[in-house]
Amino acid sequence: MKQRTKLDLGEFLPYLVNRAGMIIAEQFGIETLARHQLSIVMWRVMAVLASNGSQSQINLAELTSIDASTLSRIVTRLVRTGLLTRTRSTTSSREVVVMLSAKGNALVARLIPQAYEIEAAAAAGLSADELAVVKRCLRRIYGNMKGRPAAVRKSHQKRVAI
Amino acid sequence: MKQRTKLDLGEFLPYLVNRAGMIIAEQFGIETLARHQLSIVMWRVMAVLASNGSQSQINLAELTSIDASTLSRIVTRLVRTGLLTRTRSTTSSREVVVMLSAKGNALVARLIPQAYEIEAAAAAGLSADELAVVKRCLRRIYGNMKGRPAAVRKSHQKRVAI
């Protein structure tokens, strides 16, 4: 592959993805989450639990793309405010299971219509076909990154030593 | 519009955008930026300056989607490490202009091929047409959010009082 030496951010996929994600999160945070004393990261935890049911903390980190130590802090806070419960797994005592409390479920239910409102605003003017392509491709992009051979990643990290 | 009360994150655009953005940033950070003592946010600042040339700090905040106070902190750090310079604008003494130093330019030039490598890994298996649709739609999504009437946003925020 020919190496490009000039960066054109307006055509650079990681920039476009990040920029779109940031502005949606920012506006949803300001308009909707702030008055419930929720950050966007807290919302992501609650949304994943609402969508996928109770989760081990390990799966929750994976599904929310939040690193383990940050997630642990957030879960603790949401447990303290009564929105989540955290219990030992019945099958493995080392595993912690996190779920929405009744209060947490009720709050998510109130927020869901507003989440869909933000989504509709973001996707305004996109045809159903375009939206389907975008969603499919975003899932593929995630899968591509997730599935990159560890060898490739390692060879990059190794260059540190050079 | 009928209100949906169940959240299906696998079809929820904000989640898919965020998730794709996070994993790209994470891997680029670990594989490439860490050995240059750069965070992903620092990289974004430098990439915007490399792509768009020197910027006022206000424009830089806009182009990087980084809030003003965080950006100010990051610019200060990058100035200290010699990667950026910060000067008063010649046209307006209140305006601060940020640009890459020679050292900063050289570092970005070294990182660009690796940035394109990550982009290629992310977009693997997408056809040229799909990639074009995704990029166009992501720009549109950003524009939609950016262009939302302040009135809509205000009416949401006002509900805080209710």
Mean pLDDT of chain A: 90
Order of helices and strands of chain A: HHEHHEEHHH
The biggest chain-chain interface is: A-B, 76 and 76 residues
- DSSP helix fraction of chain A: 55-70%
Q: Termini distance of chain A?
A: 23 Å
- Spatial strand order of the main sheet of chain A: 1-3-2
Total number of distinct structural domains of chain A:
2
Topology readout:
The structure is a homodimer of 162-residue chains.
Chain A: H1 13-33, H2 40-52, E1 55-56, H3 57-64, H4 68-80, E2 84-88, E3 96-100, H5 102-122, H6 128-146, H7 150-158
Antiparallel strand pairs in A: 1-3, 2-3
Helix pairs in contact in A: 1-5
Task: Note down, in words, how this protein is organized.
The structure is a homodimer of 162-residue chains. Chain A has helices at residues 13-33, 40-52, 57-64, 68-80, 102-122, 128-146, 150-158; strands spanning 55-56, 84-88, 96-100. Chain A has 162 residues and is mainly α. Chain A has a three-stranded antiparallel sheet. In chain A, helix 1 (13-33) packs across helix 5. Chain A is globular. Chain A folds into two domains: 9-124, Winged helix-like DNA-binding domain superfamily/Winged helix DNA-binding domain (Arc Repressor Mutant, subunit A, Orthogonal Bundle), CATH 1.10.10.10; 126-162. Helices cover 64% and strands 7% of the residues of chain A. Chain A starts with 12 loop residues before the first helix and ends with a helix. The model of chain A has no long low-confidence stretch (mean pLDDT 90). At the A-B interface, helix 1, helix 2, helix 5, helix 6 and helix 7 of A face helix 1, helix 2, helix 5, helix 6 and helix 7 of B.
